[in-house]
Amino acid sequence: MAIYFGTGGSLARTAERLHIHTNTVTQRLERIGRLIGADWQQADRALQIQLALHLHRLRGSLTL
After folding, report:
1. Claim: this prediction has a pTM higher than 0.85
2. How many separate domains does the chain show?
């Protein structure tokens, strides 16, 4: 999902970066919608998800 947001929501560029077919990207995004709710692409919800993904990446890069 981070790659999808990183490509500005481009199915073609997401597929290219993941080395998969655009139909596969579409199917995966549909599955995500079923899991987290159909509103995930609405601006405010998409921002929440992007922030959560960013915080998750930051947390993973912390070394104590």
Report:
1. no
2. 1
